Amino acid sequence: MIPGSHFMFLALSFVCGTAVSEKSLVYVTVLFRHGDRSPIRAYPTDPYQESAWPQGFGQLSQVGMQQHYNLGQFLRKRYTGFLNESYDRHEISVRSTDYDRTLMSAEANLAGLYPPSGSQVFNPNVKWQPVPVHTVPMAEERLLSFPLGDCPRYNQLMKETEQTEEFLNVTTSYEDVIELVRNKTGLNKTTIESVWSVFDTLFCESQHNLTAPDWVTPEVMSKLKYLKDFGFRTLFGVYKPIEKSRLQGGMLLGEIVKNLTAMASEHSRPRLKLMMLSAHDTTVTALQASLKVFNGIQPPYASCHIIELYKDNGSFSVSMFYRNDTELYQLQLPGCALDCPLEDFKALTKPSISDDRDAECQLSSHGTNKEVIISLAVSGCLLFLLVAMLLAVICRQTDPMRTRGYEHVINGDES
Question: Cα–Cα 20 to 30 A to 246, which of 19, 50, 194, 213?
Answer without folding.
Answer: 194
